[in-house]
Structure formats: C-alpha cells, structure tokens
Amino acid sequence: MLTPADASLAARLPQGVLRDPGPAYTEEPRGRLKGQAGLVAAPRDVQECAAIIRACATARVAVVPRGGGTGLVGGQIMSDGPAPLILSLERMTAIRDIFPDEGVMIAESGVTLQAARMAAAGVDRQFPLSLASQGSAQIGGVMSTNAGGVNVLRFGNARALCLGIEAVLPSGEVMHDLKRLRKDNTGYDLRDLLIGAEGTLGIITAASLVLAPVPAEQGVALLVVDSPAAALRLLSLAQARLSGGVTAFELISGVSLRFLDAAFPEMRQPFAARPEWLVLVEVGLPAGLPADAALEGLFTQGLEAGLVHDGVIAQSGQQAADLWALREHIPLANRHVGAIASHDISLPLSQVAGFIDDAGAMLAGLGDMRVNCFGHLGDGNLHYNLFPAPGRVREDYDDIRRDLSQRIHEMVVARGGSFSAEHGVGRLKVADLARWGDPARLTAMRAIKGALDPLGIMNPGAVLA
Amino acid sequence: MLTPADASLAARLPQGVLRDPGPAYTEEPRGRLKGQAGLVAAPRDVQECAAIIRACATARVAVVPRGGGTGLVGGQIMSDGPAPLILSLERMTAIRDIFPDEGVMIAESGVTLQAARMAAAGVDRQFPLSLASQGSAQIGGVMSTNAGGVNVLRFGNARALCLGIEAVLPSGEVMHDLKRLRKDNTGYDLRDLLIGAEGTLGIITAASLVLAPVPAEQGVALLVVDSPAAALRLLSLAQARLSGGVTAFELISGVSLRFLDAAFPEMRQPFAARPEWLVLVEVGLPAGLPADAALEGLFTQGLEAGLVHDGVIAQSGQQAADLWALREHIPLANRHVGAIASHDISLPLSQVAGFIDDAGAMLAGLGDMRVNCFGHLGDGNLHYNLFPAPGRVREDYDDIRRDLSQRIHEMVVARGGSFSAEHGVGRLKVADLARWGDPARLTAMRAIKGALDPLGIMNPGAVLA
C-alpha cells in the first residue's frame, strides 16, 4: 500500500530539493485533468534524484516524474490515491557535453527541446526532433514518452535519436549508460525499454542524443492535392526521387485552413480558395542539388501524374517559415474552436485513405460535426479531431463523445493501426491499452513492471492499471 | 533444475517437428565450440513453435534457438548442462506479405537475409541490412542478435529496421505484434527488448521489416587516406556535403590488402603499391545528382584538404561490385591467415584514432604480431584482429591470447567503447559483460530475465550467466 508524500518524507529528502507545490505542477495543457502534489522535489543531479527515489521507496510514496508538463494523455497527472511526490527535472538543465564530429550531445533531462535544438545549431548540427511544444517540453519527457513530431519520416522518433541514457531505477540505483556508440550489442535494450515507459520503470536523468548534419540544401513546398490517397502517391514518388531526402510530409485539410482563418485572421494563406487537402513537403538534400529545383521537379512530376493541382515553393527562409507556421498553428486553431474529441492515431500507409473515407462516412451517420484530419501523413500518423458543427458547442456532444472515440479507435485497430501514435498511454488511454493490447504483450509488460518496480511507486496508474 | 531433452519430451512434441540432430545443429563458423542437441525440432508455424516451448517448459528442458548458425559468439551453442532441445526456424521460410508502397515486408524467421533482400529487390525496394554471412544468416537470428553490417551508418542496425515482431514468450504464449506502423506509443518496447536478447527472452518467429527506396543514384569509391584520423575527417566532410547520402564508410588497412594478396592472389587490387589505409565510400543519392560527380567532388575536396591521396571511383556496377568484393573478402582472408584473437569493438568516433595508436603501441610491447584493423569506421565499429608474425603460428601465442584480448577490451572500455559492437554477447562474452556492464543495468537485466523466463529454459548460459 502506498502512503501520501508528507512532512515525514520531506524530512528524509536531500537538503534543498523541495519546491513550492504550486498549480504549475498539477496541470496539463488542455486543462481537463487536475493532479495532486503532496510534495514537489527538484533534484540538482542524478545522485539527489536517486536519494529522492530511495526515500520514496522506503516510505512507499508514489513518484510522478514531471518534465515540461506538455503531455496530452495525463502521464504527468495523478488525480487519485495517496498524494504523490512530484519529481521535477527542472533543475537538471546542463548540456554536459557536445561532440559535433561524432554527432552526439549529452543533455540532462530538464533541458528543453528548444534549448537542445539551439545547442545543436550552435555547433552547426541539428537535433532533428521537432514538435509544437518544444519551447516547454523537456528532454526527459521527450524521451520518456518516445516523442515523435514532424521529422520522424527521415530521422525516426525519440528512440531512434538516443544512443544511451542515465536513469534512476525504481530501486534507487543509478544506471549509467550514456553511451556515444552507434553499435553496442551487450545485453538487453534497457534504453529503449525506459524510453516510452512514461516514467513507470524509472527516471531518465540524461540522454546521449544523436545530432545530424544540417542538410546542405533545404526547402519547403505546400502542394494542393486531390485527396489523402493522392498525397500518399505523391509521397511514394518523392521518396523514389529523393532517396531519403524528404524530411517532413505533413497533411493539412481544408478544415485546418478554415480554423486558421477563424483563429488567426491576420495570418496570410497562399491559396485564396481554401483547398480541401494539402501537403507540406520539406526536403534536406546534398550539396549540388538545389532544393527549389528538386521541389519543382517533384511538383512537375506530381502535376503530370494528376496528383498535384497547385502549389507554392518557398523562395526564402522566411517563406519556408511562413509555410511551416500554417502547419504549426493548427493545434492552436483547434483549441480556439474547441474539440469534441481528439485522436492521435497511426495506420499502415496503405490503410490511411480508406480509413479517412470510412471514418468520415461513419461520423456523418452519427451527427453533425466537423473533422479536422491533419498531421504526419508520411508516418501514417493522423491527428483526427472532431469539432462541433457551426453554431453548436462541445457540450452538445457530451452524450456521444465516448462512443465516437471508441468507434474511431475500433476502426483504426481493425486496420492494423494504433490508438496512440505519438502521445503515449499516460492515464487517459490505459483502458484502451488494456482493451486492444496483445494479451501476451500485456502479460509480459506487467511482469517487467513487477520485476523492476515491485513496490509500484513509479508513476502508478500510468500505462498499466 | 533443467532436465535433458529426451524421448519422453519427444513424445510430447507436435507431430512431425523432429529433425535428425546432425552435426550442422551443433557447430559454429569458427569451429571452436561444439554444442549438444538432445533433440532438434523445427516448427512449421508459430503455433507449433509455441507448443514446443510449452512442452519444454513443462519438462524443464533448455531451448536453444537456431537460425543460420552464423553467430560468432556461441549464442547458438550450448556445450554444458543437460542436453537442450535445439529449436530451428529453418521451416518457417514464408515471406508472408510485402507492401512496397508502405516500405514494409513481413518475413518469417527462417527466411535468409539474402532471400529477404532479394524479395525486396523484386518489388524495387531494398532491405538495407547487409553482412558477410547473409546467404546463411536468417531473419530470426539477425533480429535476435540485433545484427549490424555495412549500412548501419545510414539505416541503423536490425532494431532500426524492424517495426514489429511475432514471438513465442518463455511461457509459451504468442505475442502478436507484427505492426506496420512508424509510430506506435502504446506501452513498453518489448520488440526492442527481444531484439538483441539472443533468444534468452523468447523466440522471434516473424518480423515486420522496413524496406527503403532504392536510391536514384548509387556509387562507390575506394580512397587512399593517410590515417584513420584522416578517414574520420573525410567522413565528417562527406556527411556535411551529402546530407545522409553516405550509406557505407568502411576502413580497410594495408594488412587487409596483403592478407587478400596471400589468400586470393587472383583478385585484382586497384593500387599497385598497397596503401596503409583506405576507405570504401558508398553513396545513395537523389535523382539529379549523379553519384560519380558527387564522389568526384568529395575526392577533390579530400585532396585539397590533404586527407585523400589517391582513389578510384567505380564507373560501372561491375566496378562497384569489385571494390566491394575487396572489403567482403577480408574476413575470409583473415581465416586463411588464422587469427590469434579477434575483437568486434566500437568506440565513440573521436576516440577511434587514439585507440588505434595506443593499442598498436601496447601490442608492439607484448610481442611480434600483425594487426588487421578494418570495418565499419562510420559507426566507430572496428574489427580489430591479431595475427601471428610471418613464420609463426597461432599456437605460439596461446599463453598470451587471453591477456591480449583483456587488455584490448580494457582500452576500449576506458574510452567509452563496447567490447561487442555487433556480434552480441552469446556465451563467449558473458564474462566480459559481467565485468564491464553497468551494475544497475545488469541487475535490471537479471530481474527481467527472471520475470519473463522464471524457469530459465530459454537459451540458458547466453548473455547472463
């Protein structure tokens, strides 16, 4: 049985780690969940972090790790049970080392993703993980949730961008594994086990991150396509032409554009009529192959193949940033409108178009609503979000919301897809995992959780019930 | 306590799975280890595989999984203890499905790597995992050992090329997780845990493999460099110019060339004088950037920077194959000469040159021998192999062999490197792992092993003692 984080635990913690448990530690971005914080502790180094975990283990107190707090599935929010200790990585903000010629940076978990990206840029490299919340999201959270974002198509998710970790295990032991090696086959892959475990198997305190060369040529285009199916054929064409040079391939819908109009009327859009489907294509290419020429070649081939109808190719860094801004403001526009329900799904690429058709038809039969379907098409990862019809409000859909999500997830799973592509399980999707997870896999996950965290103190209630 | 695989177990196995336990099931490539086989069973499908595991669990019989048998660290060889059941995947050879536009292939574990690569080529894609033993090595073994090879620099190791697995867990349960998704954050990463576990946590029976587009432009060059340090500066230069277009960057030594002369005198070499250091550079580039022009640009820049002194750029597919043949025949040439000791090490890139210098000096102080240092320089992965001085034989070094390897591994570990970059731990490196592995990581590994395989039947003695 767990006990609350209280004064007697506080007395056993290392000097000076406690923070005021203000509301910033118990909130999440959408404001739908509210957590508790018996204590908030922010270690300055891994040894203090380990001492906190040992104290919590001794006292049987739940530990909820917290990075930037930007998670969307409640992994950082414990609402029930004895009040936990919130373990914030906010003071572990060192970039311990950077090796430009190796393409490696060692960053502590409290470093924001933005700061990590800037540190890489400072040595003429890139840390190719980019997502909307990067100004707040921290490396520890990014790793613990195996974050994705817009460049997974070329560089993989967080797991693929990490060579090693330092972590405090639930026992309070420190695992020192900050390797800078591209190959190291010496035993079980605990790094990838802790990455994506959402703090339920230990606390990642630092990571050895992969830096990539900045492409010699970079470019962005926004292309109007007939349909998601046409977009995917265009992707196939682009991959064949550019041999790994496509670094992002993002779907934008007409609904996205109209929501941007509503939320950001001052934002200029390149197409006067709002097309129903567009893709934002980003390329990173070798020296000797100018990006605008490569994108024009793709555009022309797409036109000839009947896949593309219109498009703009950025002629400057500013224009490229403006096109990206359209894509990046969609989540904010969504919040402005107010979603009924959001879904972070992925599908095998050949199932994407069929899913969009079938889900649209299914929803049309259930009620009057708007669908904003957008996101990382190149990864088969869609943000499939439902909004009230004009003139109606979120609450009008309260009685069907759960059913809507259930049905969408059912359709996704039936097509071999995932009900959580990049956001994780957290606490909001625990029931989904229990329902759709492979039984043998779930049994093995529970066995691992029991073996590494026998007291059940690490982020209880997240991932596994 | 385990019991031997005997007639009473045989009677409980599914009909028709038993094979004659010939010597092919108890040998390994270097002929140094000899295993035992109480029984050999070859299931035709995952259900038969699961039934075999359940029977072994009931009878407390050790299971040693076997793919192509090409492993170099004895993971497939159990010499001690009650005779095991050898579980051969040789009859699970279906390519179940192939999705060219998704870049995915579902292959059973008994498919050879060569067959998988040919199946990909048949739909105009590549399975970018390539290694010397690919004609025999099977997908199951490749995955279970997280195999590497020559294209890791661009495409990652086996782990990075697998989207999902089907596996039989030690309990006999089947984990169905053959996803075709690029993003799927729904719980612990059991896929990557089983990959690289060398059969100690379960049997991988099929894998969902990543296929990549065939590059629009491909080319190969063999460049003469001053030193490994110069080679690494050239790599840095190539990465900056070619933005991910370098698909292989292999080091070849003068010793390699002279061994090739001895073993394959008919093989033509491009440089009459045998240079001391060379790199084989392979590129895969977008349409519009001819590979020979890109390689010439790199060659010229390397010359100007004083890094490259001579070189050849393949002018045809045949010439490219001939240059690759030099690299690929080095292991055979090594066997012809007969190594005293071999080391599959990796180092942080900035530590490679210093290691080569220091290790050479250390060895010079210990005795008269030849070093063939070659391999996957772009990954920091060297095959650092020691050979008798001319006129002497392997046995002359019997009394110092263990000490030599120990000292080399010590130097590697002191520089943040790995004593097993791509071959794995198997049984030959169990003591190395116990000595150099992080203690907290080892404790966690043992806890996981105990949780998933409480009877200890899965490949006992491999990875963990």
Automatic annotation (TrEMBL), chains A, B:
FAD-binding PCMH-type domain sequence ranges: 33-214
GO molecular-function term, one example from the UniProt record: catalytic activity
Pfam families with a match to the protein in the record: FAD-oxidase_C (PF02913), FAD_binding_4 (PF01565)
Signal peptide per UniProt: none
SUPFAM superfamilies: FAD-binding/transporter-associated domain-like, FAD-linked oxidases, C-terminal domain
InterPro entries: FAD-bd_oxidored_4_C (IPR004113), FAD-bd_PCMH (IPR016166), FAD-bd_PCMH-like_sf (IPR036318), FAD-bd_PCMH_sub1 (IPR016167), FAD-bd_PCMH_sub2 (IPR016169), FAD-linked_Oxase-like_C (IPR016164), FAD-oxidored/transferase_4 (IPR051264), Oxid_FAD_bind_N (IPR006094)
One biological process term in Gene Ontology: respiratory electron transport chain
UniProtKB keywords: FAD, Flavoprotein
Keyword Flavoprotein included in the entry's annotation: yes
Tree of life domain: Bacteria
Family as reported in the entry's similarity comment: Belongs to the FAD-binding oxidoreductase/transferase type 4 family.
Family matches, as PANTHER family: BLL6224 PROTEIN, D-2-HYDROXYGLUTARATE DEHYDROGENASE, MITOCHONDRIAL
Protein name (database record): FAD-binding oxidoreductase
